[in-house]
Amino acid sequence: MSKSLPKRTEDYSLWYNELVKRAGLAENSSVRGCMVIKPYGYAIWEKMQRTLDDMFKRTGHENAYFPLFVPKSLFEAEEKNAEGFAKECAVVTHYRLQNDPDKPGKLRVDPNAKLEEELIVRPTSEAIIWSTYKGWIQSYRDLPLLINQWANVVRWEMRTRLFLRTAEFLWQEGHTAHATAEEALAETRQMLDVYAQFAEEWLALPVVKGVKTENERFAGAVETYCIEGLMQDGKALQAGTSHFLGQNFAKAFDVQFQTKEGGLEHVWGTSWGVSTRLMGALVMAHSDDEGLVLPPKLAPIQVVIVPIYKAGQLDELRERIRPMQMGLIERGISVKLDDRDTERPGYKFAEWELKGVPVRIAVGMRDLEAGTVEVARRDTKEKMTLPLADIVASVDQLLADIQQNIYRRALHYREEHTTRVETYEEFKQVLDGKGGFVVAHYDGTPETEERIKDETKATIRCLALNEPEEAGICILTGRPSTRRAHFARAY
Amino acid sequence: MSKSLPKRTEDYSLWYNELVKRAGLAENSSVRGCMVIKPYGYAIWEKMQRTLDDMFKRTGHENAYFPLFVPKSLFEAEEKNAEGFAKECAVVTHYRLQNDPDKPGKLRVDPNAKLEEELIVRPTSEAIIWSTYKGWIQSYRDLPLLINQWANVVRWEMRTRLFLRTAEFLWQEGHTAHATAEEALAETRQMLDVYAQFAEEWLALPVVKGVKTENERFAGAVETYCIEGLMQDGKALQAGTSHFLGQNFAKAFDVQFQTKEGGLEHVWGTSWGVSTRLMGALVMAHSDDEGLVLPPKLAPIQVVIVPIYKAGQLDELRERIRPMQMGLIERGISVKLDDRDTERPGYKFAEWELKGVPVRIAVGMRDLEAGTVEVARRDTKEKMTLPLADIVASVDQLLADIQQNIYRRALHYREEHTTRVETYEEFKQVLDGKGGFVVAHYDGTPETEERIKDETKATIRCLALNEPEEAGICILTGRPSTRRAHFARAY
């Protein structure tokens, strides 16, 4: 708590890294690109997990678990998928260590323990899962198969950043199989909606729902849908994807089913995932120069009570605070009483601000006598004196207000930072100026998209689902266009 | 459902494997020694996780997440631990694949993407965690540090069996750091008690709490405590371990703290874990020749309702069953209505028996008119006709009875199969005859323990905590002994 955080306006990236570390969310580990998720960060992730898991179960999905390793031959079976991930695969080649004859007390890889076939640490699980589904699916009666997995995956990224891009990350991956393309597509869209609802109602993050272009599509998918959020530095962040796999994996792994009519057909697949990257979105969308701003629904501690006292008063004050504390807990609010006698209130205030606790209650003897407490909200930093008599209801309402306010603020920011442009000149100006989403016509070709990316570092985040078809002219080539794309620089 | 299961008395091992597969708990994957945990099996594991996680949190622990990989140099730092696991480590040596120039469309490991330092896939996380704790612990104020992790780990076992011994398995691992040896020992014992309580109250598995001998101790621990259960074939199964690590890891990773008095000391550590092996214990302790027998507290489906009807009656029957179904659900009981029109009741009965659903309710029009239903309990296969009027309360009570009965049955089995012997002759007779725990004096030396193991395949499961000190004579050497050990053949 000694130094203040870097300012967002001065070095957004440094601000983010420092905040993630100082707030106790995560830190780099001694394994290149792998992070340690600390208890405070993990507590938020657990709330995300629990919420999403409930949503998946309500939409009929069951959890299962598939191996960490994928034999190379399986990994190769769907060629586009394999090609897409080949450059970032951690590979297990040996299964034993032995004493190093040259270095007493040290170990080395036992050259006699080489695997016949290398194992890939899963970068995603389509290959291992579809090879398993072959045994699970025979008839239309086995469909739809609606499975989700919570797991760790590894993608050997060269440049990593806590939560946003790490070599190992935690995620969930849904993998479903259906009798028809329509049903699989409906599933893909349903899960996109689940993600959007979670992002907006829980993360308080407004998102654009859309479909990826061919360049940005998941390797092995026919269509990739996504939700895209906007961070406070004007960059977009992909917060979740839902893929319609067509029959690609079914064909690669020969997963066929007997239809009602007695025919034999390949099944239709989907996969969809969100990851610990959402933790990065959470930080970057709402937090400020004093620290985290957490949406109350995901905050591990929703209310912190800081007693203000003179020497010798703490025991009595603690007793007198107890009814309020218990009242809040009974209302289902998570409360922390910070009664450390080793720190001063100002220090505590700053610490809980850094950690993003939505509501802080400061209370001293004089307050209690006046029948009031001082309440501060983290999002606006507003302080108010509230009557103790109905404090539980007030705080409950305040938490709901904060959740809504954070969302509205992020929505307002996104609206302010979504610009429709007609020319390439304007496009570049907006990107270099206020940033955000730039909504522009392009001719629909991968080449144009690539050139724009090379020249401006902006990618097409998605073709937004709510963007109407509209005749226009490509900002780069002047060729005709039928719809606008959401461009942005992105994480 | 076409073939019946192998009989336990004929081939216990085959019975186990077939049951795990046919009941839909798990299956072997295409990765040697790694299993796929199927939705029904995973649903049980989720209930175990949720329950244990709540117990850990109630005892003050927080969850965190540490990397999957351990750099070889860290792995080596605590020598005994490294030595103990060296022979079963999966090792990542490369981070990229490339197109195979010799085989178009295939990939090979990119020889230019060799890691400078190999990464071990964690067989356990002490090394990576203690290297992290070094940064977290400075002062006595940072202690105790009470952390748990839910994770996958890999131990390259040569002979594997679903749930009991697999190359990859799921587990939790608690890792705590304390200011004093006494406190760390108390933590070790507390978590042993948590495990024992979970085993007995939830798995319905009576366990012997004890301490391991030096031969069987966790590599790197000063003491290993364990809970040991007895399976229906008379073999013991270690169901959980809790280790007092002394200062071994603190010294290996130089984790010191400033004491209240201003000195500098190494911290004291513990670690403790249970794994998906508990699924194996669950199956082997209670199930029978017809299938699983699940304790109601862990059963994903506690009650199955099977409608008995003539053609055309199903819709009406479904409607009339609804109030009972809803009543059970409101009571917090998980209910499945098996209204498949494609299968006959007998088939359904056998299927739910195989899957171990504790209570089955069969109900037809005539029952409803008589105001009764037919209820069958899975554990005793007893059938009874119960009045519909108070069916919810009856079923609730029945579930509690079944939980208790399964536990009592397992306890009775264990008591019948725990034999105190005085001679080596007796010892071998009991082992080869009825099996189970053989409680015998031995001289306390690793050599004697080893010889007994070589000659009989029985190991010391533990020195039971409730076994009194008692003068006696070693069954093998005739030398004096101060306490009896629990021997058994084990999984």
UniProtKB/TrEMBL annotation, chains A, B:
<dbReference type="Pfam" id="PF09180">
    <property type="entry name" value="ProRS-C_1"/>
</dbReference>
<keyword id="KW-0547">Nucleotide-binding</keyword>
<keyword id="KW-0067">ATP-binding</keyword>
<keyword id="KW-0436">Ligase</keyword>
<dbReference type="InterPro" id="IPR033721">
    <property type="entry name" value="ProRS_core_arch_euk"/>
</dbReference>
<dbReference type="InterPro" id="IPR004499">
    <property type="entry name" value="Pro-tRNA-ligase_IIa_arc-type"/>
</dbReference>
<dbReference type="GO" id="GO:0006433">
    <property type="term" value="P:prolyl-tRNA aminoacylation"/>
</dbReference>
<dbReference type="InterPro" id="IPR004154">
    <property type="entry name" value="Anticodon-bd"/>
</dbReference>
<keyword id="KW-0963">Cytoplasm</keyword>
<dbReference type="Pfam" id="PF03129">
    <property type="entry name" value="HGTP_anticodon"/>
</dbReference>
<keyword id="KW-0030">Aminoacyl-tRNA synthetase</keyword>
<comment type="subunit">
    <text>Homodimer.</text>
</comment>
<dbReference type="InterPro" id="IPR006195">
    <property type="entry name" value="aa-tRNA-synth_II"/>
</dbReference>
<dbReference type="InterPro" id="IPR002314">
    <property type="entry name" value="aa-tRNA-synt_IIb"/>
</dbReference>
<dbReference type="InterPro" id="IPR017449">
    <property type="entry name" value="Pro-tRNA_synth_II"/>
</dbReference>
<dbReference type="Pfam" id="PF00587">
    <property type="entry name" value="tRNA-synt_2b"/>
</dbReference>
<keyword id="KW-0648">Protein biosynthesis</keyword>
<dbReference type="InterPro" id="IPR045864">
    <property type="entry name" value="aa-tRNA-synth_II/BPL/LPL"/>
</dbReference>
<feature type="domain" description="Aminoacyl-transfer RNA synthetases class-II family profile">
    <location>
        <begin position="27"/>
        <end position="295"/>
    </location>
</feature>
<comment type="similarity">
    <text>Belongs to the class-II aminoacyl-tRNA synthetase family. ProS type 3 subfamily.</text>
</comment>
<dbReference type="GO" id="GO:0004827">
    <property type="term" value="F:proline-tRNA ligase activity"/>
</dbReference>
<comment type="function">
    <text>Catalyzes the attachment of proline to tRNA(Pro) in a two-step reaction: proline is first activated by ATP to form Pro-AMP and then transferred to the acceptor end of tRNA(Pro).</text>
</comment>
<protein>
    <recommendedName>
        <fullName>Proline--tRNA ligase</fullName>
        <ecNumber>6.1.1.15</ecNumber>
    </recommendedName>
</protein>
<dbReference type="GO" id="GO:0017101">
    <property type="term" value="C:aminoacyl-tRNA synthetase multienzyme complex"/>
</dbReference>
<dbReference type="GO" id="GO:0005524">
    <property type="term" value="F:ATP binding"/>
</dbReference>
<dbReference type="InterPro" id="IPR036621">
    <property type="entry name" value="Anticodon-bd_dom_sf"/>
</dbReference>
<dbReference type="GO" id="GO:0005737">
    <property type="term" value="C:cytoplasm"/>
</dbReference>
<dbReference type="InterPro" id="IPR016061">
    <property type="entry name" value="Pro-tRNA_ligase_II_C"/>
</dbReference>
